[in-house]
């Protein structure tokens, strides 16, 4: 059975407080975007995993899709499986690729082996794999609080916008990014801000990780500035970075020419 895990962008990200469990409470809007991996699973006589595409530079046994399989195997009688994961979503980018692969694995195993796991239970399993993971169970635009798992779906649509995502060759560790951030409340709630037209978002919708990431990696700030110079209606770093996205009113196919050759540039009509 094959499935195509998608990516997300964060439209605004506020880190409101540090929690006793070591995580942070956040407020963000998750929006699904069609940058995709491919995940193929078949029942087999022995467990195997094969990864192609972007090199994850780590033991495939630690991959989140394997963790998702092991999590369900603990509670259900699953046969061994043969997994093929093709990585296309940039890694360490703030696009949630690993979390999405893990959530897709839960959904796929539930369907393939007819496990009968309810959506609520899938959300609980997903949170054990990552804070971003529950969003990828339903993949609907959502205002998120808590660790990112308290999801409230919102009627936000960016249909008609042209999305550009630029990922420089900078890998950002989410855990390291949280260590540097100074928590605080925002003046106006993000949930209220996203109801404004996109043309009013610039300067109002912010990502709390930008100041520290921009200070350490000025090239990430430059991407945002370039996207605005090229006419973006809104541009922001996604999650803990290092990918930056821009929303444009018109097609921007030649945009790659404005960035160095080793930057990955994706464009997609939403
Ligand atoms: C920052 C965000 C914004 O959407 O996304 P990314 O930039 O990773 O895509 C998320 O909060 C990332 O979620 P996720 O990538 O699933 O993180 P996890 O695996 O749960 O946690 C990795 C580490 O980040 C820190 N962490 C994560 C989430 C959170 N609400 N508070 C935290 O302090 C913890 O130190 C944790 O050990
Ligand atoms: N299937 C996977 N895809 C991507 N990264 C994975 C996967 N499984 C485990 N990882 C690990 O998770 C880390 C963060 O992955 P990713 O979700 O892409 O980050 P981010 O959301 O911060 O861009 C990677 O550096 C890698 O070590």
TrEMBL record:
Q: Which UniProt keywords apply?
A: ATP-binding, Isoprene biosynthesis, Kinase, Nucleotide-binding, Transferase
Gene Ontology annotations of biological process type:
isopentenyl diphosphate biosynthetic process, methylerythritol 4-phosphate pathway; terpenoid biosynthetic process
Q: Output the Gene3D superfamilies linked to this UniProt entry.
A: 3.30.230.10, GHMP kinase, C-terminal domain
Enzyme active site: 8, 132
EC numbers, comma separated? 2.7.1.148
SUPFAM superfamilies from the UniProt entry: GHMP Kinase, C-terminal domain (SSF55060), Ribosomal protein S5 domain 2-like (SSF54211)
GHMP kinase C-terminal domain: residues covered: 206-254
Q: Looking at the record's lineage, which domain of life comes first?
A: Bacteria
The record lists the catalysed reaction(s) as:
4-CDP-2-C-methyl-D-erythritol + ATP = 4-CDP-2-C-methyl-D-erythritol 2-phosphate + ADP + H(+)
Pathway given for this chain reads:
Isoprenoid biosynthesis; isopentenyl diphosphate biosynthesis via DXP pathway; isopentenyl diphosphate from 1-deoxy-D-xylulose 5-phosphate: step 3/6
Binding-site residues for ATP, renumbered to this chain: 90-100
Q: Where is the GHMP kinase N-terminal domain?
A: 63-137
User: What family does the entry list?
Assistant: Belongs to the GHMP kinase family. IspE subfamily.
Mind telling me what this protein is named? Answer: 4-diphosphocytidyl-2-C-methyl-D-erythritol kinase
Task: State the species of origin.
Answer: Sunxiuqinia dokdonensis
